[in-house]
Design goal:
With 149 residues, this protein is α+β, with helices and mostly antiparallel strands. The protein has four helices and eight strands, in the order H-H-H-E-E-E-E-E-E-E-E-H.
């Protein structure tokens, strides 16, 4: 048994009707037998026989929140890009990498040359033989941009 538990002889005294009722009558109060069984249980298990003094607050499961991922286009068409500057942060390759652009391990598209960003649509042949339209981003070097004017 744990803690300050009753001995077996004390438990017999509590459960014995004649001794128990005699002691209770002397005090002027008669308790039911279950009262002593509950008191004994609380001492053995080491719980409090008193009522709670605070209302039980329920547990909540949906309070945690994660940080934002800040995905999306960071440099738009016509903007100047330097080597290493992030153009698009994405999950998966929704936008493909063209000339002057490489793909990072988290599918981020970044520039590898100085130049200006340009977006265009391309037709890609899928594995099942069908065609699909996909966006592609390229970084055109500054010399090409000057020639286009």
């Amino acid at each position: 048994m744990r803690g300050n538990a009753f001995s077996l002889s004390t438990w017999r005294v509590f459960t014995n009707n004649s001794l128990n009722q005699r002691a209770q009558k002397a005090r002027g109060v008669i308790y039911p037998r279950t009262f002593f069984a509950c008191a004994f249980f609380c001492l053995v298990v080491q719980c409090s026989p008193h009522m709670a003094h605070r209302k039980a607050g329920g547990s909540s499961k949906n309070l945690n929140d994660s940080n934002p991922q800040y995905l999306g286009t960071k440099l738009y068409a016509g903007q100047k890009a330097q080597p290493g500057s992030i153009i698009v942060r994405q999950r998966g390759t929704k936008i493909l990498a063209g000339e002057g652009v490489r793909v990072g391990k988290d599918h981020t598209l970044y520039s590898v040359v100085n130049g200006f960003v340009s977006f265009r649509s391309v037709r890609k042949n899928r594995f099942d033989g069908t065609w699909t339209q996909r966006k592609m981003v390229s970084v055109l070097p500054e010399a090409l941009k000057a020639e286009a004017k």
